[in-house]
Specification:
3 helices; mainly alpha; single chain
Length: about 210
């Protein structure tokens, strides 16, 4: 019976040791996965910061473009008013054929060219504003996606750490159980040897193990 009890304890210890090795391997895998996730999270955090800076820069450019567009609109309005005033004067002097008429006509044409140039510049600014707005919207969407991804990674890291804590407790409990079984097996062997001393010399368990 004692031999059988020792054999059973030995088998149990071997099973516990195998389970401990399995837990240690899983812990190493979880630790590596945790490190990978932390690296990804850090990279995403840095990338999100870069995109936020870029978005702020785009907002500055957009505000500047809006200000320029307003100035050009005002300039175009002033030029248009001046052109109308000159056209009115030209119409009044048209029949006179005077030098003043020719001068006003030339000035009007110059103003019309300047007006066309302002309108063209305004159109360029408007196109630039549209591009900046689209780019800013895209960046904001990217920032939201990265923030969500970073949050998911952080949650995964927390979950992994909790799993690692549970496994570490499991491993600790398993090691304590293994030590208790070893102590019990030693006690059984000692008892057997004491009985052997008192009753003769039966097979020694310590020699078997």
């Amino acid at each position: 019976d004692m031999l059988r009890a020792v054999d059973l304890m030995r088998e149990e210890i071997e099973n516990i040791e195998a389970n401990e090795k399995n837990l240690i391997t899983k812990l190493k895998d979880l630790d590596q996965e945790n490190q990978d996730l932390m690296a990804q999270s850090g990279s995403l955090h840095d990338e999100r910061g870069f995109f936020k800076d870029k978005s702020r820069d785009l907002e500055v450019q957009l505000k500047s473009a809006v200000a320029v567009e307003r100035l050009l609109t005002q300039e175009a309005g002033i030029l248009e008013a001046n052109i109308r005033e000159l056209e009115l004067k030209i119409n009044n002097l048209k029949d006179a054929g005077s030098t003043e008429y020719q001068e006003l006509l030339t000035e009007t044409r110059q103003l019309e060219d300047e007006y066309s140039d302002v309108l063209a510049r305004e159109q360029v600014i408007i196109s630039r504003m549209n591009l900046l707005e689209k780019e800013n919207i895209r960046l904001e969407q990217d920032i939201v996606r990265m923030t969500d991804r970073e949050s998911d990674l952080n949650n995964a890291i927390i979950s992994l750490k909790e799993s690692m804590v549970i496994m570490e407790r499991e491993l600790g409990a398993s090691m304590r159980m293994r030590e208790r079984l070893k102590d019990s097996m030693i006690d059984v062997i000692d008892q057997n040897e004491r009985l052997g001393t008192n009753e003769g010399t039966p097979p020694s368990l310590s020699n078997r193990y």
